[in-house]
Design a protein that fits this description.
By secondary structure, this protein is mainly α. The protein has one domain. Helix content is about 60%, strand content about 0%. The chain is built from four helices and no strands. Helix 2 runs antiparallel to helix 3.
């Protein structure tokens, strides 16, 4: 693809604009959040499997706000890109838990 671009647009300059920089940054943060979320899903699945093998009922660990790790990472999606001045009390609590 780059070869085609170089041949067709040999004299073109690459420019960076605010929108595309923000887009790349948000995609990178999303990717990291999703990786951590999948880890949480796999850990919970493993804990459920172990509980089932031992004949116990699995009880997910809850944080102080009532969320599990998986829920916390899911609900933090838009929170990470929102100015902290616009966070609700619940979102502020969620960020304290998320980054502690």
């Amino acid at each position: 693809m780059n070869l085609i671009i170089q041949k067709c647009f040999a004299n073109a300059d690459t420019t960076l604009d605010r929108f595309h920089i923000q887009q790349l940054a948000s995609e990178a943060v999303q990717k990291i959040r999703i990786i951590h979320r999948w880890e949480a899903i796999e850990q919970e699945a493993e804990a459920i499997k172990e509980a089932r093998e031992s004949g116990e009922k699995h009880k997910a660990e809850l944080y102080s706000n009532g969320d599990t790790r998986k829920q916390l990472l899911t609900r933090a999606r838009h929170l990470l890109f929102k100015p902290c001045s616009k966070w609700t009390a619940t979102q502020k609590e969620r960020t304290k838990i998320l980054f502690s």
